[in-house]
Amino acid sequence: QVQLVESGGGLVQAGDSLRLSCAASGRTFSNYAMGWFRQAPGKEREFVAAIRWSGGSTGYADSVKGRFTISRDNAKNTVYLQMNSLKPEDTAVYYCAAQYRIYGIGVSPIEYDYWGQGTQVTVSS
């Protein structure tokens, strides 16, 4: 059983920063892509950022490029999402996800096999 647990969400003002964490357990993720997705009320789940567990390929949604940074700490089995210059439109439940693949990353939610329960990020205007 693969388990992913997100933490670090909260209520902040526009322009503030947050760092989300995703603690992974249950197996070794050597050949996995790790992704962050978000879903706001009434909207579809959308891609935010992804990174290979090995630290190779990375990718970001256009809406967060230059503001968000994805990283990982293999020793702690943890993936991070550093979010700077937050905007009200960033408000959503943020989910950590894992996808088995030999190389590269995926950007579609349907490609991912394992999901955390989500952490709420609310950005006030």
Low-confidence stretches: none
Structural class: mainly beta
Largest sheet: 7 strands, mixed
- Find the count of extended strands (DSSP E, 2+ residues): 11
The end-to-end span amounts to 40 Å
Helix and strand run: EEEEEEEEEEE
> Counting H and I runs of at least 4 residues, what is the number of helices?
0
Q: In angstroms, what is the radius of gyration?
A: 13 Å
Helix content: under 10%
What global shape is seen?
globular
Q: Give the percentage of residues in beta strands.
A: over 45%
Overall pLDDT confidence: 94
Structural overview:
- It is built from no helices and 11 strands.
- By secondary structure, the chain is mostly beta strands.
- The strands form 2 sheets. Strands 2, 4, 5, 6, 9, 10 and 11 form a 7-stranded mixed β-sheet that branches. It has a 4-stranded antiparallel β-sheet with strand order 1-3-8-7, with no helix packed on it.
- The chain is globular, with a radius of gyration of 13 Å.
- The chain starts with a strand and ends with a strand.
- 33% of the residues are buried.
Lay out the secondary structure.
Elements: E1 3-7, E2 10-13, E3 18-25, E4 32-39, E5 46-52, E6 58-60, E7 68-73, E8 78-83, E9 92-100, E10 114-115, E11 119-124
